[in-house]
UniProtKB/TrEMBL annotation:
Catalytic activity line of the entry: 4 Fe(II)-[cytochrome c] + O2 + 8 H(+)(in) = 4 Fe(III)-[cytochrome c] + 2 H2O + 4 H(+)(out)
Any single Pfam family the record assigns to this protein: COX2
Matches recorded under PROSITE patterns: COX2, COX2_CUA
UniProt keyword annotation of Acetylation present: no
GO molecular function terms noted in the UniProt entry: copper ion binding; cytochrome-c oxidase activity
Protein name per the record: Cytochrome aa3 subunit 2
GO cellular component: cell envelope; membrane
Keywords: Copper, Membrane, Metal-binding, Transmembrane, Transmembrane helix
Domain Cytochrome oxidase subunit II copper A binding: 55-155
Keyword Transport: no
Function field: Subunits I and II form the functional core of the enzyme complex. Electrons originating in cytochrome c are transferred via heme a and Cu(A) to the binuclear center formed by heme a3 and Cu(B).
UniProt xrefs under InterPro entries: Ba3_CcO_II_C, CcO_II-like_C, Copper_CuA, Cupredoxin, NosZ/Cyto_c_oxidase_sub2
Length: 155
């Protein structure tokens, strides 16, 4: 190619800025990319029961087919222990723990969360089909781990 010197310099600057751009993206991915984005909100574990919305755990309707499930995972139960929604509902789960790490899995769905004290785990899922499932704690949390079960019903 027979380009003037100034053109070549500008092409090099353009190419170099692309390299820098991708390097920044890569660096950001390395620094922040391994966090679970659902665990970015924080809460003091000691204050879970007095901090809204966890002072009133439960299922709240927020739209025509939309619910907010505010839940506490604790040794060795879920609060509320039973969540029932109509088929076609979108549920925004907000779960936290006042003690140790727990799991929150609804088998056969995309809901498989890790609940870490100090953090609020958020996840949204839509349930089109009727089901009656056990909510399972899949993180070992102590002597009652295997009996830490809840119930999730889509009717
Ligand atoms: Cu909670 Cu295992």
């Amino acid at each position: 190619m027979d380009l003037p010197r100034s053109e070549r310099i500008w092409l090099m600057i353009g190419g170099a800025s692309l390299v820098v751009f991708f390097a920044i993206i890569l660096l950001m991915a390395l620094v922040w990319g391994f966090h679970n984005p659902g665990q970015m909100k924080t809460i003091a574990p000691d204050a879970v029961r007095t901090t809204p919305p966890f002072d009133k755990p439960g299922l709240y309707q927020v739209g025509p087919n939309e619910y907010r499930a505010v839940m506490i995972a604790q040794m060795f139960m879920y609060q509320p222990n039973n969540v029932t929604v109509p088929a076609g509902s979108t549920v925004h789960f907000e779960v936290t723990s006042p003690d140790v790490v727990h799991g929150f899995e609804i088998p056969g769905t995309n809901v498989n969360l890790m609940v870490v004290p100090g953090h609020i785990t958020e996840y949204t899922a839509t349930f089109r089909n009727k089901m009656d499932r056990v909510i399972v704690c899949n993180e070992y949390c102590g002597s009652g781990h295997q009996v830490m079960l809840g119930r999730f019903v889509v009717q």
